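Narrative summary of target 7.
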Amino acid sequence: MAVAILKDTHELLRERIKELREEIDANKDDIRDAAAHGDLSENAEYDSAKEKQSMLHYKLNQLQMYMNVEIFDEGDINTDVVSFGTHVKIKNKKNGEVQEYNLVGPAEYELENYPEVMTYTSPLAKALMGKEVGETAEIKKPDKHLEFEVLEIESVLQSE
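Modeled conformation, tokenized:
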């Protein structure tokens, strides 16, 4: 699957990037002001401002990598089967425990835009992908065998 992102997450991402750019610009002023205090080798204020600038640029770069992605809107989410952008309710067939997850991508996870997030790259999500209500997803590991029945599938955008 190509990198995908939900439309509302993309909009949130654009806002966060704008805020980070504004914070970077403000921090440049802090660096300049701290540098004006003299000797940079013993200037904790300058070192702190430079370190903050580095962290802000790192965050900005992380978020910008999610900008060139496939954007999913409500109509793009297939709720006939478990897929990207679906909210699923599953039951562990061994212990009967029912769990709910929002199958989304790394950007939604990174931005904490949805509760009960499971990225589509996780082993359970990979096992669930393409399953219909009533079908069983299996995860086989050398030390255990897990089975989950799909109980419900709806759009993440509807379950908010």
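The helical segments are 7-35, 44-64, 106-111, 123-128.
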